[in-house]
Amino acid sequence: MAMAACVKVILGSVAFAIFWVLAVFPAVPCLPIGRTAGSLLGATLMVIFQVMTVDQAYESIDLPILVLLFGTMVVSGYLERADAFKYLGKLLTWKSKGAKDLIFRICLVSAVSSALFTNDTSCMVLTEFVLKIARENNLPPEPFLLALASSANIGSTATPIGNPQNLVIATQSGVSFWEFATGILPATILGVFFNALLLIFIYGDLLSVKKDQEDPTAGFVNGECVNSHQFSPATMGGVGSAHHETLRHRVNSEPENHWFLNGAYWDHRDQPCSRRWKMQLWKSCVYLVVVGMLVSLLMGLNMSGTAITAALALMILDFKDAVPCLEKVSYSLLLFFCGMFVTVQGFNRTGIPSTLWELMEPYAKIDEISGLAILALVILILSNLVSNVPTVLLLGARMAASSALISPAFEKKAWLILAWVSTVAGNLSLLGSAANLIVCEQACRVPDMGYTLTFWKHLKFGVPSTLLVTAIGLMLLKS
């Protein structure tokens, strides 16, 4: 696309810059309105500045992605009520053989649950389990929290429903669920494995140190838990803070040995056999619906249609007013996506992204090692600067078109490389991924077990992990 008129370029750049600042620093002092409002502001400015018309703004909103996001959030909520994550938590300690074994288990459970239920949801519900495991085994929590967050990001690459950027890629590329999963799964498996090995290598000495040998004030200031950051980054899964807060309250407040049924908690030890039988039947139905959804996706059925059908089936099986369930959906995340679609499309209309890509394209050929390295570096940097979903929206179609000129077979490979690098890039720093921040904030707030994972502690592991895992994945995806 040729560069638009000078005024349109300037105004479009200003609107995108406002969106970027509020997305990266949602509590910026001069305008602390948050990511969602910042996204809608950027979209509105694109129309006010006449970079695009109102009709063009509406057309830029990708409805299938929003429907898919909505459906997966509803399904995840029902899975949580059916104790799916509690069962995963129990697997972490079943016949454990020590600290290193626990590291591998946490990496595996985190990766698998993230591939099926999204990385943010997995981190939200598993953080407290991980802290309890560290405490029960008298071990320091730092390597276990890093294992949870980093493996959640890596594991989420395996499926189109693992994270928001994968949803965008699967929808825009036309790559089926089966093609996506089989194409990237080998890289995911090796990535999780080497990530666990790196954790054990870096924290081998720490894993042999008992928790009570650590500095008891680590992670605390004047007895209070302190977060190590002021602003959160713009990773799309983290925009639904209300959704995350609801999940955190439900996980931390749910009584032990209780089931959630018909809007209330019931102690299954005191209930008659008929009620326990009904609850077990309901849980089984939930799991069957989810398995059916996954099978349908693997068969290549429409992803957004499959997700919304599964969500509606679960609402019907619940056999009560669905409003409480729908209230748990992160509508702020959906609105953020609407604003982001408009803002990014408006920025594309200025011609700046196309011009920059034309300058970089000759040096970023995915059939050459040097070109692949340059392309991966650009994606890593952009994903940490403007977040992964805008990076995918800005680069996806251009990468695919450029790769298709080399060979039609390279087009799908380009989409998978983008999915891999943009997601693994979230492990670079604490501020690179919403999953990282969820683990940090959740761990800090757990009663009597609070621990602060600082920015520098994360960076010490995040940089080598990101570089190693990215390189391993690229070698597999390129072949």
Automatic annotation (TrEMBL):
The entry's keywords: Cell membrane, Membrane, Transmembrane, Transmembrane helix, Transport
Annotated signal peptide: none
Protein name per its UniProtKB record: Divalent ion symporter isoform 1
UniProt-listed InterPro entries: Cit_transptr-like_dom
Transmembrane segments: 61-79, 183-203, 285-317, 329-348, 369-386, 417-439, 459-477
Compartments reported by the entry: Cell membrane
GO cellular component, one term: plasma membrane
Domain of life from the UniProt record: Eukaryota
